[in-house]
Write a structure and sequence with these properties.
Number of helices of chain A: 9
Oligomer: homodimer
Order of helices and strands of chain A: HEEHEEHHEEHEHEEEEHEHEEEH
Distance between the termini of chain A: 13 Å
Radius of gyration of chain A: 20 Å
Strand content of chain A: 15-25%
Largest sheet of chain A: 9 strands, mixed
Structural class of chain A: alpha+beta
Chain lengths: 301, 301
């Protein structure tokens, strides 16, 4: 399937209006920019269909309610419009909703300004095959994730900590950063949830560790249940992660990268130091799930 | 002194170019917006002169270096240009520098994109006289400030936690939020440093409590030294703050509001529950310092 949209990516809509990519789109006084006062969702588009759009929008709605930002009523229409030119294509779709334009100060203006809604559709990043075949290593961030932040669990625009953690990891020769919460429990990677198979149970940190309730994370927990793999949201620490037997495994989950084997932390192997059997099994099940829910024809998989 | 600039505020410059206030100024793919990947400074302009511009720019430089964002060489020129129409006027000047425009993903692109520099000059907010005369109350935020964040001490764009804390405080009927660090020590207010006079020493939380090294905070520490008031960067907790004797005092400091007496926390009085003598003395000294350094003529004070 080819389509002009492929060459026209990235494509940008603000409040439903398509805009030139190279132009300016947003006010310098938008609180999304001045204060990170907003939320976003990054979604996987397979064959022109968003994987679990409802789950992404539900998480966004909950976040908007928590921050007291009115939910733009036309979000679904604007996403549908952005997807119109994408029939049959794979892409990444980012939806950002900010509190809108305001003067200075931290106080949210009353009455609330009109929120700013941004949809950016771009080609799926071409992740190297090696990250799936050989797995990746992570560097434990020197800073901690704050599980007691007022915005813990919300996908706010405040990602500069994760940017700094990834930068630190890359300078240490690693592909990813693993963030611990303030009590030292594993929380998540910079933009991925973490799973750990300890040989008996598939564990992922609970929300109480500052982990974001990822859409892929949720799908993996479902798949594990369907496969009869014991799974639980449960705290684990770094010693457990790198101190398990040969049969232990770990992987990261996110919307665009999917399931990525995590095989080393700070140079220490997790399990056998190679992608594990359960990771491969869940990757296959996840790929099939996405294809099924997005209506991908078999020949395309 | 009157000037057309007064009616033309706010005024906005992006990379030194003046832009219409009502237009769009920044790309929707600017990492300042998508990831809070940038820093800012809010500066007091008295009589057309920025109070301690050098200190603000030094803090910004340190932050840019920490995040690996190249420092735009023309920042001073752009600020000078923005101040040109402001001779004799008071204002607030916000300088924002982001990592610039990039595609998706958290990794900072190599080579680095051109940073985006935004200057917004606006009229000074008209703070109610009552906040200085009667003082304000604060609500202790239910979430904690993360003193072990990778970006602790940097004035990044990630202010959504502070926005949420202020919103929570206002819903609780309070004017401000007081943030504790993860160990329970007083850290700072949403956009102000905190000082506590325990009857013997003027204390302010050290950087290790997640407090931002404020320019006004630094000036107040200098003034205390000059007045012979014992002062120290030292940890204190909530019990100390509200459990001191009648002689204890507290106040908040920030560039635009200056020194604001803090007289209550969660409904409990600090000291006598009214602005204290030391707070008033430092306020007078600070006002005189700003006037002196900004060259304000006496008649204007």
């Amino acid at each position: 399937v080819t389509h002009d949209a492929r060459t026209a990516l990235p494509a940008i809509w603000v409040d439903g209006t398509p805009l030139e990519v190279g132009s300016a789109h947003v006010s310098a006084r938008d609180r999304g920019l001045t204060l990170a006062d907003g939320l976003f969702e990054t979604m996987l588009v397979r064959s022109g269909v968003v994987f679990r759009l409802d789950r992404h929008l539900a998480r966004l709605s909950a976040g908007l309610a928590a921050l007291g930002i009115p939910e733009p009523p036309a979000l679904r229409d604007w996403i549908r419009e952005a997807l119109r030119g994408l029939a049959g294509l794979d892409a990444g779709l980012r939806l950002t909703v900010t509190r809108g334009v305001a003067g200075g100060g931290l106080a949210a203006p009353e009455p609330p300004p009109v929120p700013t809604s941004i949809v950016v559709v771009d080609a799926l990043p071409s992740f190297p095959a090696a990250i799936y075949e050989a797995g990746i290593g992570a560097h434990v961030a020197s800073g901690r994730r704050n599980e007691r932040s007022l915005t813990a669990g919300l996908k706010t625009l405040a990602y500069v900590d994760a940017v700094a953690a990834l930068r630190e990891a890359q300078r240490a020769g690693s592909d990813e950063a693993l963030l611990l919460d303030t009590e030292g429990h594993c929380s998540e990677a910079t933009a991925s949830n973490i799973f750990f198979w300890d040989g008996d149970t598939l564990l992922t940190p609970p929300a109480g560790c500052g982990a974001l309730p990822g859409v892929t994370r949720e799908a993996v927990l479902e798949l594990a249940g369907g496969l009869g793999v014991p799974a639980a949201e449960r705290v684990f620490d770094l010693d457990a992660l790198v101190g398990g037997g040969e049969g232990s495994e770990a992987f990261l989950t996110s919307s665009l990268r999917g399931i990525v084997p995590l095989v080393r932390v700070n140079g220490r192997a997790i399990g056998a130091g190679i992608p594990g059997a359960l990771t491969r099994r869940l990757t296959g099940a996840y790929t099939a799930l996405v294809a099924r829910e997005c209506g991908v024809r078999t020949a395309q998989i």
